[in-house]
Write a structure and sequence with these properties.
single chain; 7 strands; binds S-adenosylmethionine; alpha/beta; globular; Rossmann fold; seven-stranded mixed sheet; 228 residues
Length: 228
């Protein structure tokens, strides 16, 4: 799960990068995905089996997109979000003012929860950025209740559309941000991350069982729902 080429994913680098990107993060997601990331995130959560009053955590929550969709679709659920970037969390909190979502600063490789705590655990576009992704998956398994659901969402298999995305992203980043190099990291991290098939095998090796895999936007984005 560490990737094939060496790219700098030390927690310090990733933490600094998202702190610096935070102000432009949502704007750039909208630009780079032509707004489609909202649709994909919504569809993923809609198809996730969550008890109406379940206890749910969104890991690597960033600006809280998935956490807010969960709360919107399941108003009685207790929803929490964790991220280690204080600047991303500041925006998440601002955007979630009228909700009861709780956000905490923390590291996904060392979660401050007892075993078997959550009915559902979600992580979107996060695992790819974690140097010790193995440890993060072990933590997810540990905090999930038996029978609970784990949703992993990220880029899928490379195809024609994703190649176009990889070509235009650096240009858009140069036009709209002062941190074009961070978006070069995004492309590299995407190219070096495991494809959905291998991710599923990896999750299964940690004890998870596959519930379903769903592909969006012709497979540019893929989600895997696992259970414990
Ligand atoms: C690409 S963003 C995804 C944000 C959000 N889930 C979304 O879908 O828009 C990745 C997030 O993971 C966070 N992150 C990376 N490694 C982390 C770790 N070890 N512990 C907690 N958060 C981490 C970053 O700070 C960043 O906010």
């Amino acid at each position: 799960m560490t990737g094939r080429k060496v790219i700098d994913k030390t927690p310090e680098t990733i933490h600094l990068m998202f702190n610096m990107l935070s102000e432009k993060y949502d704007f750039m997601n909208n630009v780079m995905s032509f707004g489609t990331h909202h649709y994909v995130k919504y569809m993923c959560i809609k198809s996730l089996d969550i008890k109406h009053d379940g206890y749910v955590i969104d890991l690597c929550t960033g600006t809280g997109d998935l956490a807010r969709i969960i709360k919107k679709l399941h108003p009685d659920a207790i929803v929490e979000g964790i991220d280690f970037s204080e600047n991303m969390l500041k925006i998440a909190k601002k955007k979630s003012l009228n909700t009861k979502i709780q956000y905490f600063q923390g590291d996904v490789t060392n979660l401050p929860y007892p075993d078997n705590t959550f009915d559902a655990v979600t992580i979107g576009f996060g695992l790819r950025n974690i140097q010790n992704a193995e440890k993060a998956v072990e933590e997810i398994y540990r905090i999930l209740k038996p029978g609970g659901s784990f949703l992993h969402l990220d880029f899928g298999n490379p195809n024609f559309l994703s190649k176009i995305y990889e070509k235009i992203t650096p240009f858009l980043a140069k036009i709209f941000t002062e941190n074009a190099d961070f978006y070069e990291y995004l492309i590299k991290s995407k190219q070096n991350f495991l494809p959905p098939e291998d991710l599923i095998k990896d999750f299964e090796s940690k004890g998870f069982k596959l519930k379903k895999r769903e592909d969006y936007l012709s497979g540019v984005i893929s989600s895997q729902t696992m259970t414990k």
